[in-house]
Amino acid sequence: MEEIQVIIGGKTASRVISAESIEALAPLLEAYPKVFLVYDRNVAWVAKEIAAGSPLAGMKAIDTSEKAKDLATVQDLCSWLLEAGADRKSLLLAVGGGITTDLAGFAACIYRRGIRFAFVPTTLLAQVDAAIGGKTGVNFLDFKNMLGVIRQPDFTFECAQVLQTLPHRDFLSGAAELLKTFLIDNTGNAYEKAVTMLSEAEVSAPDTLQKLIAAAASVKAGIVGRDEQENGERRHLNLGHTFAHAIEHEARQAGLDITHGEAVAVGILLAARLSEAMGLASKGLAARLEADWTACGLPTSVPFDLGTLTAAMTKDKKAEGDTIHFVLLSSIGQVEIRKISAAEATAQLL
Asked: Scanning 229, 263, 269, 301, which has the fewest C-beta atoms within 10 Å of its C-beta?
């Protein structure tokens, strides 16, 4: 079992625990007088495994979708906690993907002005990104994660075992965030290793996958520890996301089925193209990433006219007035931030 600490202000604010089996979770839960478990119905088998090894004060299944990621679901969770007798010393354990951890984390942050919470992410996307760093929240008026807070979970427990029933499309959605992380920090040529694993179908080798998940978690934990409130370096983790959130918004309006990871994959390519257009990256970077994406099975085409994305980008939660902190690539493993308007970014790509 490997432990990665999120150090903030010289103190351990959270832990990311990488283990081979879900059975290793039980000893961690012994420290809490009451544990309440909320889980995505799609991974009921994981919740049952946890319940078999640890006494629980209550369990609740929820349906997960971007539409259900709202204040009504948070209110329902808080009502359940109140009726079940959860107090300030209780732990809310969320089992599921990023929607589940965002919802449960936000509920824990506001219930009784804050109770302790922890995550067992069951998607690759959540293991390498959503469940690490303390961001919680819900969608509001069709805009993604518009309401939320930053507060660290006690721990995030990760093991590749819980990914065994993950649909391939959802796995690829997480792969986009995995690759994004290594585009930001390519220590040990992790980006190249991830591309090789994904393109050569080596995902069946759990040791390789577990090591890459832990490497990505370490990168994010380090960034969060240095900039928890996203005033500087943590913005790097938004690589491709300004475009991605606009794509997701337009997809919801059009009734199209596009996952977050698919939108991020396309958003990263747009960011690479913008980086070249602004002279930050050498010509050919976007083409290389597109070839890698194709080899890995990720989407590469923008599903909307670029001009239609501008309005949605101006309402991005990271927008400051007319400008946005765009995360751009200068090379693989090296990013920088440029503050420009959504209209200017779009114009550079047309």
From this structure: 301
